[in-house]
Amino acid sequence: MLQVLMPAFVAGILVLSTHVILGRQVLKRGIIFIDLAIAQVAALGTVLVHMSHEMEHMPLANLWMPLCFALAAAGLIAWLEKHMAQELEAMIGCFYVLAAVSAMLILSHDPHGGELLKQVLSGQILWVDWSTLILPAVASILVLALVLWRPQLLLGRGFYLLFALMITLSVELVGVYLVFSSLILPALAINRCESKWALAWAYLVGAVGYLLGLWLSASYDLPAGAAIVVTLALSALAFRLTYSKLINGLKP
């Protein structure tokens, strides 16, 4: 069991390594659904690769095609942020819906379309192996180093470039639902935490969520992605409640 669960857990930690930081920025910008939208657009690129036999056999097509779609969506959202700021969240929601129904329409006559959609949305984290983690690990290290070197990148348009890159890699690893949960739930857990250890708490919340979800999945034969989403939510809620009680208890 450990041979299956360890790569899956490391995949979760890699996703969290960048998504906790990006998720905090998403909350600050007030663009909560950008992760769902860009993840779904990247998933649309994956669907198109699947439907094209010629493209399916191209080297790394499952990476560069979704990445192109994600970068295009991120670039358009960056433009909308400047020119249509008041309607930005609504436009992002429209992107998500259009990308989702487009994938459904493209796969409507594919006998295996339903299974592919389920795979893209829920992911197949238990099928991750060590070789699959090399590229995400390198990308995560480079992005974290870049953010530490130039943290102002998260405040400008560079945020969208980094966001699109990491979302694309994460969707391939864990699926759309876990991408959204990994971005938002740990960030929500520490949203009112003013401690200098806030980021460390967020990583702990995420790691506990992944660990418990994988254990539940293996122990009770549950879908891993769905189980982890639930345990991430419970972990985030437990931290928020505990932190709130602690802060209220310290007030005179």
Automatic annotation (TrEMBL):
Membrane-protein topology: Multi-pass membrane protein
Top-rank taxon: Bacteria
TM regions (residue ranges): 6-23, 30-51, 63-81, 88-107, 127-149, 161-185, 197-217, 224-243
Keywords: Membrane, Transmembrane, Transmembrane helix, Transport
Cellular location(s): Cell membrane; Membrane
Family: Belongs to the ABC-3 integral membrane protein family.
Classification via PANTHER family: ABC-TRANSPORTER METAL-BINDING PROTEIN, METAL ABC TRANSPORTER PERMEASE
Protein's name in the database: Metal ABC transporter permease
Lineage: Bacteria, Pseudomonadati, Pseudomonadota, Gammaproteobacteria, Alteromonadales
